[in-house]
Amino acid sequence: MGDLKQENHSNHQDNIWRHFQNRHPEVFEGAAARMDYIVREIIRKKTTAFPRVLNIGAGNGHLEERGAQLGWEIYSLDPDEGAVNRLLKKGIRAYRGYMEGMPFADDSFDFVVASEVLEHLNAQQLHEGLREAVRVMRRGAWFIGTVPHCENLTLNEVVCPKCQEVFHRWGHQRSFDLQTMRGELLSFFDQAVVKRRGFVAFRGRSWRGKIKSLVRSILARYGAPIAMPNIYFAARKQRDIPSRQN
Predict the structure, then answer these.
(1) Do the Cβ atoms of 114 and 57 come closer than 8 Å?
(2) What is the pTM of this model?
(3) Tens-digit pLDDT profile for the chain (246 aa)?
(4) Fold for domain 11-200+228-236?
(5) In sequence order, which ranges of the chain are alpha helices (DSSP H)?
(6) Where are the domains of the chain?
């Protein structure tokens, strides 16, 4: 199991994550379109009927439940004990831990997913987390996920009225554009695709709602801030990397 006392994770980060996952899980309902997109990408890229998939950051468990319904061998990794226990009760293989020290053997997975996770990591954590992702992936496996596109971190800063500490309301520490995201991935992977996307729902919406979704999707591809675009990435492991790197 990964070291749950890693000093490079602040208690603040864990507390923010724990708050939303346990007290306000409804904030993750808007992520369904994004997670369904990732499910479709896995279906498109998989080479076996029932791939072995790891999702880092459980959220409300949407991806895990969809994967289980499709018969995938689905695993989940999350630092919050409550989120892990809820998934365990549903029969999902869930583990408590961090991306920087994952409790899985080398060459374990066909897909590793990290959607809206990397922006929570500082530079050292990101480096260690990507190295760990490569370690647990089989050769030919895919690392898939999303991050916010060109987020202005200061716009989501809040201040604690008691202690006056300033922090990001979602715990984000990094902002990415297409170039920086591609550069981070190519430090560990041979192949990386990054593109802007707006993850919107069409099913069940009125025709006006569908038009709004279409407009937002188009604007997001051009990086318009009003559309709240994300960066979608898919990086493939074609080679092994040394176990240690300075």
Answers:
(1) yes
(2) 0.84
(3) 334 434 444 556 666 665 556 555 545 556 788 999 999 999 999 999 999 999 999 988 999 999 999 999 999 999 999 999 999 999 999 999 999 999 999 999 999 999 999 999 999 999 999 999 999 999 999 999 999 999 988 888 888 788 878 877 778 999 999 999 999 999 999 899 999 988 877 777 777 877 776 776 777 677 777 667 999 999 999 876 654 443
(4) Rossmann fold (3.40.50)
(5) 11-22, 32-45, 62-69, 81-89, 123-136, 178-186, 207-221
(6) 11-200+228-236
